[in-house]
Amino acid sequence: MSGSHLSKDFFELVKSIGESKSKQEEDRIIVSEVAQLKRKMTELSQASNSQAAQANKKKQKEFLIRLMYVEMLGHDASFGYIKAVEMTASTNLIQKRVGYLTCSLTLSPTHEFRFMIINQLQRDLQSANHLEVCSALMAVCKLVTTEMIPAVQPMIIESLRHDIELVRKKAVMALHRFHQLNPDSVAGLGDSLRRTLCDRDPSVMGAALCLLHDVAVITPSAYKDLVPSYVSILKQITEHRLPREFDYHRIPAPWIQIRLLKILALLGQADQATSEGMYEVLHDVMRRADTGINVGYAIIYECVRTVTTIYPNSTLLDAAAASISRFISSDNHNLKYLGVTGLAAIVKDHPRYAAAHQMAVIDCLEDPDETLKRKTLDLLYRMTNPVNVEFIVAKLTTFLREATDVFLRTELVSRITQCAERFAPSNAWYIQTMTNVFELGGDLVKVEVAHNLMRLIAEGSGDDEDQDAELRRDAVDTYLELLEKPVLPDILVCTMAWVLGEYGYLSEAMHVDEIAERLCELIDRPFDNEDVTRSYIVSAVTKLLAQLEGGTGLPVAEAMMHKYKTSRHIDLQQRCLEYLALKPYPQLVARTHPVDASCEDLDVDVNLSFLQAFVDTALAKGAPRYDPPDDLDDDDGFGGRRDHVQLNIEAYKKPELPYSGVKLQSNDPLGAGVPWAPPGGGGPTSTYPAAGPASTYGGAAGAPPVVAGAGWGSQQKSVRNVWGPTGINANEPPPQQHQPQPYGSNQPPYGGGYPQHQQPPQGPPPSQYGGGPSSTYHSEYRPDDEDTDDEPVVDERAVMAASLFGGVPGAAPPAAKRGSVKADVPSSLSRKSTVKKTIKRKSAKAESDQGGFLNAPPAPQQQQQQQQPAHVDLLDISFDSNYASNPLPSTNNYLDPFAPQPAAAATVISPSQAREVPLDPFQMSGLISSIVPDSTKFQHQGRALEPWLISTQEFGGRWGSCPCEVKSNVATTTIRTLDDFCHRIHASDINPVEAIPQTSEVIAAGRVQNPESVALIHCKVRQGGLDLTVRTADPAFSNSLSAFLGQILK
């Protein structure tokens, strides 16, 4: 607004503030202005007649503008809020808008004055003057809270049919604000939104697209019928059928085009039928937007994102790749950044398109622009495969060494860890890489990564004991060298202490007593987590002292034990006192701390029979016999005694879902008493696993820590190594485990076979690409002056590109590598080229958490299939590629279209068979359409229930988020044991998470997709019946699933 109607005092105020030399001078001016405003507003409110009051309204408008200026500079002006509320009732439009503006800028969302404006908003929304209606609609977007929506929503809906297009547009914007505050408030306005999409004014239609996009994010299936309308609108826009005022640099309505593309990507994802209606218009939009201006590039980029999101089409993917090629080869850094971002989106599912941009990616990687370099590192992470993992991890590690931003460092640590665990070519390389990450990343590394490294060193490959011993010896020598460094992160010190304590005797450079002395010197360093780190060191020293001949101790070790036996940390104090108590008995020390026993099974006496003599003596002396509580299995589902009375001092909570027959979420914390929770489990654990005599590693000797998430009772025995580039090694049968154990430790997984991503790896194919045992990075360095005349001379950037794009479909084979490349890559830990065993990794946390259920030996038919080698391109997962090179998975396996194809044996399907069975990587319907419907399969709203592979801890975390509970008692004569129940629900596509024989309880989980709805099941098997508890987030889902289980379990 112009300043012609403002007084000279206001301009003097603005000028004085602008010329102030310090914050203190500015504050003095504002304080003086606040005092003047208070006085002048009081004088205005004492007007004696209506004529004077009308004149004072003009002055009050200026005072409110000055009040906003005061608030903007951070001073309190609450004395004038009531004047702003009064100004909203003015009949003058300018004064009314100033009042609404002041209220929207000064009143907080919880301020009580907001409710005083509701009546005035209602009157203005029903006004005959469309300018007043527009003012009220703009105020609604700024002032309305969730509680105020019902009071004004009917008038807003009525405004959608107003004659003035500006009113209709602002009404749509108000409804969009309502959706942001409370999505349920516009849930029933689907028909009204569809009408606004067909409004005769393009501005109203454009405003409706924002609301329709947000609504479709929540429920995309409900708005897929609008795809033809969206396509028609987009086609009309590209054909310049909108008024010229919507053009921007000769591009018709670019912002509306971008919004339409976002909606089409959302609705076409994983839907072939819907996507096919978009292909033509997307190609046309991409072609017309290529005009060489920035807004056209924005539309092209959004088209690329849409093409890579919807069901794939080879023609569109080729056009998107061509557009990305122009971006990434541009000299403009902004366009180059756009090209790298778009290439990352394409490479995620179609890696072959990256092969044509090898040198451009190298240029971006070496560019001084920090932002472009970070985005290129993200692209490298998405391109990682077993062939180029060494080069990419080396680049990421180099960037981690130079980075200072904590968020970037955290992301780099996570990505290096994931790449190393998924694609490590050898155990030695994995150990060296993780050691570098521990040293550089420090506390940014997750503790589970250290646990996995310890387990790998302890278990080795399991195929050759000599190579496993060499691997451990290399690890010991590496960690002995690291002891010389003055600063070491806590997680690295814990890993070093555990390895040296277990396998220090393998060192050829130092004796056991020397290693113990070095560890004693290490313990006095400052650590971030002193109690845990020093406990690891004490346990390692204790293990080493147990190996000394004759039980002779070390003076420095005894001094350390005496020093820390009075530590304020109880765990550290206990370890020192235990050693001092056992020291007079050398044989007992050696027995409690055996050599290399970390993977040995422990015989646990669950009945505590060694205390029977003590109990008998106490009973003979008249002590009362223990009387266990008899209400542990009461109907409330939470164990523990409830017979004591407590005073409830908290207010009752109002039920959120008052449905009949559905139990709401309990106020009792989940981890305290769910019947399937382990004793003391579910709560927080220590940062690192305990070590030493009192460790969870397995008593004195210690075993590698159990990964959080393993089922209760599923003890980690002498498990074979399961690391590999493609997932869990199904060829390795799990050892026999003692009870209790999770269900399925002796049964094959669902469907009689293993999912494709769980087939055992055959190792990286031996090739010239630099991966696997024959990697160039393990070769000896050859100086340039020793090069022979026959050695090929290759450009260094070409070598880098060959290493980077190794294994990517369409990439040319790399040229011979020169020794100078080795300088950029950390040297391998292994001192002998024979230590190159393929690392067998855990493919996913959810699989490892299933315990024996997913580690069962494969079926005989599956083993036969695995013995038939077939060449499968690791990253060629393009949907338009030859079916012969991308065999169809079995219908019993889970299909993940976004995961790289594993380098495992697969049954090759002939092209004729492939034509008979269409490959639909986004929908399971095409894979199981030939299966006859089975009454044992449950469906909810037309969506089939499928097994959900989760751990016990994840089950507990989701229990509280599923408030709709239904309990039932099922009388059955066919189910008498836990195995009977597990087999029965397993046949109905429900995954048994864990079985607890001691209490005859089972927990299971299932889910339906699009959108995802989870179902959690708890069952107690009793004589003659079952006690079932079903929990979901939908009462109808809970009731129907409970009734279904009642039928199949009879």
TrEMBL record:
Molecular function as annotated in GO: clathrin adaptor activity
Cited Pfam families: Adaptin_N (PF01602), AP4E_app_platf (PF14807)
SMART domains attached to this UniProt entry: AP4E_app_platf
Keywords: Membrane, Protein transport, Transport
InterPro entries in UniProt: Adaptor_Complx_Large_Subunit (IPR050840), AP4E1_C (IPR028269), ARM-like (IPR011989), ARM-type_fold (IPR016024), Clathrin/coatomer_adapt-like_N (IPR002553)
Gene Ontology cellular component annotations, sorted alphabetically: AP-2 adaptor complex
GO biological process terms, semicolon-separated: clathrin-dependent endocytosis; intracellular protein transport
Disordered: region residues: 670-689, 708-791, 811-870
UniProt keyword annotation of Membrane present: yes
The name this protein goes by in its record: AP-4 complex subunit epsilon-1 C-terminal domain-containing protein
SUPFAM superfamilies in the record: ARM repeat (SSF48371)
Subcellular location: Endomembrane system
Residue spans of biased composition, Basic residues class: 833-843
Record flagged with keyword Methyltransferase: no
Recorded superkingdom: Eukaryota
Ranges of biased composition (kind: Low complexity): 738-760, 861-870
Binding site for a 1,2-diacyl-sn-glycero-3-phospho-(1D-myo-inositol-3,4,5-trisphosphate): K40
